[in-house]
Amino acid sequence: MTGRPTTGEPVLEVRNLVTEFPLRTGPFRAVDGVSFELHAGRTLCVVGESGSGKSVTARSILQIVDQPGRLVEGEILLHRHRTAKGAGADDTVDLARLNPRSSAIRAIRGRDVAMIFQEPMSSLSPVHTIGDQIGESIRLHGATSRRDARRRTIDLLRQVEIPDPESAIDRYTFEYSGGMRQRAMIAMALACNPSILIADEPTTALDVTTQAEILDLIRRLQQSHGMAVMFITHDMGVVAEIADEIVVMRHGKLVERGDVFAIFERPEHAYTRMLIDAVKALDRPSRRRLAMRAAKPPGAAVLDIDGLEKVFHLSSGWFGRKRSTLKAVSDLDLRLRAGENLGVVGESGSGKTTLGRCILRVLEPSGGTIRYETRSGEAVDLTALDRAALTRIRREIRMVFQDPFASLNPRMTVQQVIGEPLLVAGLLSGRDLARRVGELLEMVGLPAASMERYPHAFSGGQRQRIGIARAIALDPKVIVADEPTSALDVSIRTQVLDLLLDLQERLDLSFVFISHDIGVIRYFCDRIAVMYKGGIVETGETETVCAAPDHAYTRSLLSAVPHPDPRVRGEKKRHRYVEQA
Amino acid sequence: MLAAFILKRLLWAIPFLFAVSIVAFALIQAPPGDYLTTFAATLAASGDVVDSERLDALRTRYGLDQPFLVQYWKWISGVLQGDFGISFEWQQPVSGLIWERMGLSVCLAVSTLLFTWALAFPIGIYSAVRKYSIGDYIVSTLGFIGLATPNFLLALVLMYIGVVHFGTDVGGLFSDRYQAAPWSWGKFVDLLTHIWVPVVILGTSATASLIRIMRANLLDELNKPYVTTARAKGLSEFRLLVKYPVRLALNPFISTIGWAFPQLISGAVITAFVLSLPTAGPLLLQALLAQDMYLAGAFILLLCCLTVVGMLVSDILLALVDPRVRYR
Fold this sequence. Notes:
The structure holds two protein chains of two kinds.
Chain A: E1 12-23, E2 26-38, E3 43-47, H1 54-61, E4 70-79, E5 92-94, H2 103-108, E6 113-116, H3 130-141, H4 146-159, H5 165-168, H6 178-190, E7 196-200, H7 208-225, E8 228-233, H8 236-242, E9 245-250, E10 253-259, H9 260-265, H10 270-281, H11 287-295, E11 301-316, E12 322-337, E13 341-345, H12 352-359, E14 367-373, E15 379-381, H13 387-393, E16 397-400, H14 414-424, H15 430-443, H16 460-472, E17 478-482, H17 490-507, E18 510-515, H18 518-524, E19 527-532, E20 535-541, H19 542-547, H20 552-560
Parallel strand pairs in A: 3-8, 3-9, 6-7, 7-8, 13-18, 13-19, 16-17, 17-18
Antiparallel strand pairs in A: 1-2, 1-4, 4-5, 9-10, 11-12, 11-14, 14-15, 19-20
Chain B: H1 2-29, H2 35-45, H3 52-62, H4 68-80, E1 86-87, E2 92-93, H5 94-129, H6 134-148, H7 151-166, H8 185-222, H9 225-233, H10 237-243, H11 245-249, H12 251-266, H13 269-274, H14 280-289, H15 293-321
Antiparallel strand pairs in B: 1-2
């Protein structure tokens, strides 16, 4: 499989690693007695939900844990003699013994062990060129001239398939797209031909199609360079796609460790089973939903979008003359029936969020009509409403946002957050308001007593429940949910989706559900609309579209979704969608 | 891209300065009376009596009896030809008066700026990197004291110490014998021995606030993911610090360079009075009090030019330093 034979001997051994963060209440063990091995040419996936300590483990290896965290116990043995960099004689370094500021560990960082990070935008300096940042790595570990370093940088950019590397080298981070930034980051990591590559959620911030390309790239480079890869992720689909071995972490401890097939097919620990089941559940329609639709099929259209258009003016030229514009949504038709869940899927930049915001008139549509049937039964065009009418309509169409951390005001109590729409609408106040907020909290599965607390006291999943309680406070008809589960851990995703289904049944809701995650859409949505470059390329029953996509773009999108089964890895032929001119 | 930007800004500056000159002229004329009224009042206070005929003659000579727009036109057309008029009070061309004072002002301001930066940047970086260490606490405490002390008070204290303990003369920028002397090496050295007092006084509070800003800016940057990336490459802590977070923490400073320009004239008037510095600030104040309109008008116009130019300079610097700026 690799250029060099894979020996049974590990290149890196982590034994009983403990990393602590001193807190006021005493030391907090972010990593607690973790042991694993990395082998040349093989990929170890570290899986776990947020807060499981997987990132800290990775950073501990290079001793770049954020202040004030520090390694307290354990060994990190780097067997350099087993890598291409080794001199032949036994040359084993215990990284845990090195001072984090010593030149000894600095010589290993980037040269023997390189790392790539999650957020390709913020992980690269915004004010230095890409070439500068890659060239720096090259010159740091080898005495090369500026000219040679530049040549090597261009070569690296070509290896990671960045188009036109000669000019791309002098561009800045913000001129690169998300996928290209991650490619540049990989090029930077490869600068000194490291024997170990640590990838900390490198594809989490990317679209599925870009993710599939980056995974391909990492795999190819691993094969040609014979690197050992440690890949950190929370996505079991990605794990199934690339892992040779798996380490499952929870609360800083290693839960289970083993071969990829063993873990997926015979998980021993209950937590591992739960993780895998949660992902598999999302790969088929919710039974609950099917039962609900059988009992009560969707009714007439509540929302009928016709020829919607939204144009953004990007820059104004001399003295306000308009120069460039961006059509975020163009000529879009869409229909939402009463009691139905409509999934809108697409990559970032496809205009799905703009669509959601146009429905609520948070953004002013540039053209088209949105016909909406109000609770009282009259049909109105949302695009033509005045302020007062809009205020009334906004009580009936509500929104749930993606980021449960950013969408709740940290200085308001939960009661204030949920009660605000009621207060603004002038419906309730004082004790009645408190009682209603209590009811709403119980409806979303939180204790009514928690209304006194502030958002920071809740976990991500709980905060999203608060956001949902705020959305249903005014007893709406339609909820536009913009990626409501993408910031949540897998095990919580299904819970939140089930909660939304539950509320749908009780409150007679219809959902416009915006997501990039096909699994989530398949579970939750009756119909699906696939968006591409501001328009809808395909709509239909979710299962029909997923099983037999009509449009070439849908096919490409579906083929990029990693499947949580290591046996079918590589069976799907992935193809890139190329627009016909 | 950048050239078009500069050109555009310069073109915009023309109507702006024109409008400002009208407003400035109107403001100078706004108080009741004119220079001659003030002049007569001063003379009357010292017992002299001025006959109104002479005043009227002077008024006609200076053109003070003409309508506002005519006076303005006379002034602005002169300014466009480089003639700023004659100061009533000093009976000298305005340009001569201004340039001498401005030279010393610039000299003082630049020295103060260099002093401030040389002190504030390293200390600010230190106190951000060693956050909550004893050194940080000491520096922060000193910084707050510096921030809270009024400049003129510090000036009085330093003067007292200078006179009582060192027996030196600390007022002004020159010793008596160089006061009116032409420029020479001796005069320059004399300037150096005097200038440190106002530099320290003016620089103290600026340094203190700059330390706080630098510390806050840098603390924001220190935990950014790109710092971790750089560390993972194997850069040493010092090189990493200087190349990445410090570089980004400097951006907000560049926008403040623009504010330093108008400070050349209007800054530190009180301190300049206390130390009797021959800089532009006191002269401006005096000109305004005496309704010496050509002198005051020239100063205000200069102030506006400096503001416009200062902002332009800092915008250009920012665009050069931060590649993201140009494209937004």
